[in-house]
Structure formats: structure tokens, C-alpha cells
Specification:
The chain is an alpha+beta fold. It has a domain of 66 residues: 2-Layer Sandwich (Alpha-Beta Plaits), CATH 3.30.70. 12% of the residues are buried.
């Protein structure tokens, strides 16, 4: 796989012919910390993905309160692996 940076987006291309599997929405992320943590794990494991923020400067992020921070997109062949990684992230505070 070859990673290319285009306009700040991480795009993963496979093979010499540069054909890319279609990316689909895998799961919605609650906040920026969750997004950064998942992004770093997926990048470390070389899992092709894109993080899409719902932030819109025209509305000053109002939709992030209603819909979550954004979502992660990836080829469907990685869906189960990404969901499993997300579930294993240390995001939830234990009950005190």
C-alpha cells in the first residue's frame, strides 16, 4: 500500500494500478480525542481509512453537538477489524 497526502486527506492506494477500494462510513465518532486515538491506531496498523469531521465553520460546529464529531470511512473489508479496534480503545471512564 502507498499512502499519499492530498489536500490534507490521507488516501491509501493499493497495487501498481492505483485502484482504490470504495470507502464507506464505518462508525460515528463522539469527539476529537476519540478520532485522534482511533486514527493513530489505524495508521500504525496500516489500515486504510479517512477521518471525516462534521465541523462546519459557517455553523461554528453546531452539528457536531447533534451528530457527533464525525465518522471514519474505510473499505468494507476492514469494517469488523475497525469496529473491534474501536471497542478496545480506552475511552470510557470506569464507574466510581
Amino acid at each position: 500500500m502507498v499512502r499519499e497526502e492530498i489536500a490534507g486527506l490521507r488516501i491509501w492506494k493499493q497495487g501498481l494500478d492505483r485502484k482504490m477500494e470504495e470507502f464507506k462510513k464505518i462508525l460515528v465518532l463522539g469527539n476529537e480525542i476519540e478520532a485522534q486515538l482511533l486514527d493513530s491506531v489505524l495508521t500504525e496498523r496500516k489500515i486504510p481509512h479517512r477521518m471525516k469531521s462534521y465541523h462546519d465553520t459557517a455553523y461554528d460546529g453546531i452539528f457536531q453537538v447533534q451528530k457527533g464529531w464525525g465518522h471514519v470511512e474505510a473499505p468494507l473489508s476492514y469494517k469488523e477489524e475497525i469496529i473491534s479496534i474501536h471497542q478496545d480503545l480506552p475511552l470510557k471512564n470506569p464507574d466510581i
